[in-house]
TrEMBL record:
InterPro entries tied to this protein: Metal_Hydrolase, Pept_M19
UniProt GO MF annotations: metallodipeptidase activity
Keywords: Signal
Membrane-spanning parts: none
UniProt organism field: Hyphomonas adhaerens MHS-3
This protein's name: Membrane dipeptidase
Presence of the UniProt keyword Signal in the record: yes
UniProt record, GO biological process: proteolysis
Signal sequence, start to end: 1-21
Record carries keyword Glycosyltransferase: no
Amino acid sequence: MRKMFLAVSALALLGACAPKAAETEAAAPVEAVEAATPAEIHATLMVLDSHLDTPANLSNPDFDIMADNPRKMGSVQVDVPKMTRGGLDGGFWVIFTPQGPLTDEAYEAAFKAATARQDEILKMVADHPDTFELAYSADDAERIAASGKFVVLQSMENSYPLKLDVSNLETFYDKGLRMVGLIHFRDNQFGGSATDFTSPDDKGLTDLGKDLVREANRLGLVVDGSHSSDASVRDMMEISTTPVILTHTGLKSVYDHPRNITDEFLKEIAAQGGVIQINAYSGYLEELEDSPERRAALEQLKVEFEGVNPFTADDETKARYMERMEAINAEFPAPRSTFEKFMEHMLRALELVGPDHVGMGADWDGGGGVEGMEDVSFLPKVTERLITEGYTEEDLKKIWGGNLMRVMRQAEAAKETTE
Ligand SMILES: [Zn+2]
């Protein structure tokens, strides 16, 4: 976050060009070289995450975005002190809506909930104008990061709240929405999900979903294929005039899970200029087994709430469910993946498609975080590891934000040609 403007050649000395150090040292002041530790290099970069679920915390009276909140794995991992320590400049703050029934009444409720969530993001920025600023474009984001404030871009995870009318996208766009993810855990009015086992694997976008992609292009929004079935992502790639992004996804070649993608598919996405942002959600990183005690507690919970969808239940039921879930998590914590496993996904993606097509979307506050990288304050470790692997400062710039800015600029340019 706090830019240090160190000697630009310093990283080269640390990384692949280390053997040249002796000859360069003779010509350059030695202090400049000594100053650049990986942590210091990290601090000079614009560091963005493409999927911050933090807005879900904003209405919680126990949460204060300005305070160093006690960390809760998977749900309280981002606030100003942690962002400052981790050198995180901001990113896409998510308007997430859980998938509910495809009925008029449920659509209305989802629209209201998403609007309220977006208003909470706007209020966070309005309440702390010296700390946060809304970004409406890639230029905005870069200017804000350089000014020392935190960048607040907005994205939607699950377009379910847009009802059956794609023109509703513009309502959210007008208040700053710049990226749209069409689908979540289950199929919806826009298309097939990667994790809806009640429908065929090859279910792609519906006609309405295809229209939504066209509407996103018309308005200049980036299209996000995370959570969508491969067939839906293929439809997005075919229809969208701009590259598709996967804001929080991993690789099947590291862990074969429906939320991850194959090496071949990643190459196709990259060939179109698309980007994968690597997820740090334990259940998608590797096969993990609950302890017998946790399994028994979860079974018991299922019996207690039989037939209830906790996401769409009434407030009182939801609160009761969350309370029970938190108690179980505290007593019998969910097994966690590790920093090394997360890096395995990231390094594999980099090896396959290179630093122009890889970034990070850890799913902070949405279930993300692993042992060794428990909240955003640990982000310099990723930079350190990438430097150890030989990635240069130019590579790091792209990985940490440059690629996101590129796809945003492509979406912005498409808007201009459509108008
Ligand atoms: Zn997600």
